[in-house]
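Here is a protein:
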Amino acid sequence: MTTKPAGSTRTTQPTAPARTFEMRFTSTPRGARLARRLTALRLDAWGIPYGTGSHDTLVLIAAELTANAVRHGHVPGRDFHLRVHIPADGRTVHIEVTDTRAEHLPRRPATAPETGGTKETGRGLLLVSRLATRWDWHPRPDGPGKTVWAEYELPSPSALVSSARD
């Protein structure tokens, strides 16, 4: 006959492993588009399915950060680096994009675009600031350039835990 050890009545929720996708892309519109598509594919495989609000928001954040890396961080012959990470707790998604241009630093967007609303550009970081839980940038630690990152808090981490796909 066995007995339960004292204090073992607590059950623990299984956690998903930490998940990371990272890759270098050419600093071109085509590279930004491929980064966006691979991010969408990876999020779906990780249990954040296409067509959900979280998926659409995360893909838009990745699209804006990669487009900014191409437009404002482009150095001929240099790539940008994308990293998408979900820690083991499954509560947040961290997206970061690193480029090699140090003199064009991101500015905190105003509450309204400085372009007066008529131009088609200048709203990327405004969108990121509205959609992400938090965002910021820091100098690239291993060379010239910068990393712009955003975090998005998922409404329910249980979807990642129950996902059998990886």
About this structure: The CA atoms of residues 32 and 158 lie 30 Å apart. The mean pLDDT is 84.
